[in-house]
Amino acid sequence: MANKIVTQKTAIIPSAPLGKRVPTVDEDGKYLIDFMMIVRGLKTMPRQVREEKIKLLYGVLGWYNKAVVYADLNLKLNLLWVSLRSDEGSTMQISSALNIMIPEAVLVGNYSFFGSST
To answer: How far apart are CA 41 and CA 38, in angstroms?
Structure first.
């Protein structure tokens, strides 16, 4: 996963739509899986608190660096998108670790994803 460093001389321009930036296969051609998390209130947190939360977020993703291929944090929407190798990690394992370290981060999914008790 490559990080792009923004400097004062770097122009800030709108990104391409997420659907055009997110990889769908890894370097071996295997399909990736992805998930989204909402980080409630991230953009309205005081700057120092927000920066600490972001450091924690990327720290957790770093623990799973063999699995995580791509991560995108959209502060405007408080949305984290993660793409990972299906054979190296688990959506539930990684999202749970994120939620433990950052309780404001909640997994986005439909009810059937979690199973039905009926």
So the answer is: 9
Bridge partners (DSSP) listed for residue 74: 79
Global pTM value: 0.77
Q: Taking the domain 23-110, which CATH number applies?
A: 3.30.70.100
Sign of CA dihedral 21, 77, 4, 14: positive
* Burial of 54 from C-beta contacts in 10 A (0-12 / 13-18 / 19+): middle
Residue type, 114: F
For 13-32, the pLDDT digits (tens) are 456 777 778 888 888 888 89
Tell me the longest C-alpha to C-alpha distance in the chain: 57
